[in-house]
Amino acid sequence: LAGQIPHQQRMGADSCSLHTVFLGRQSQEGPNPNEVSRTVTQTIIHPNYNSATSNNDIALLRLSSPVTFSNFILPVCLAAADSAFFAGTDTWVTGWGNIGTAEPLPSPQNLMEVEVPVVGNRQCNCNYGVGRITENMICAGLLNGGKDSCQGDSGGPMVSKQNNRWVQAGVVSFGIGCALPNFPGVYARVSQYQTWINSIITSNQPGFIIFRSTGTDSDQNVTCPGLPPPTTRPPPTTTPRRECLLCPDFVKTDC
Fold first, then answer.
1. pLDDT at position 250, please?
2. What's this model's pTM, rounded to 2 decimal places?
3. Beta-carbon contacts of residue 8 (< 8 Å; ≥ 6 apart)
């Protein structure tokens, strides 16, 4: 599962190696009457992807033909540069991966969803080891464990809701085990890649929207041995939002 962006591209993790993508699929085993498929004609891996560290773990897939949106196949807004996802921001992750460490999704393998809060990068660095989590990553999960994305979910979307818009914040990347205490899931941070994505998709570009968490970011107060002091980020700049003109009327948005 990956984020669908208009209208002939999909976004996923570099760890994915797909030949065919299926859109509108609900079950891996049962009938999927609303499903369509497309052949992948090109996989565009981020030029700075590092397989050892999973930094820049993101790719674009070029499809064989455009996808027609419907009630079951919808595009997603992408988090723009300057987006801010504070610690505790609710996110949702979907996929058909394991439901626990070495525990496959049982039959009929219906699409699953999990709600997990953002874990700030400072806290996540303290958990994984200072320097392991880069600015190109975003973490989410419960520090007590129990809910997480898992093996088989890689490349799937992590989204948050802002007003009435779903905004993709991340792409499932890596973790230690599944839902273990103190090891939240790690995702590629979509907002870091607006320039790169737009350099690849030069026409009918996807809609980016600045996501702004409310309140203050408690992650700025986190400290642990070796962690440098927090840096002050300038306030997000205001950029015009582009209407998603490729969407049918019932999913039009100003992303």
1. 42
2. 0.89
3. 62, 63, 65, 66, 67, 204
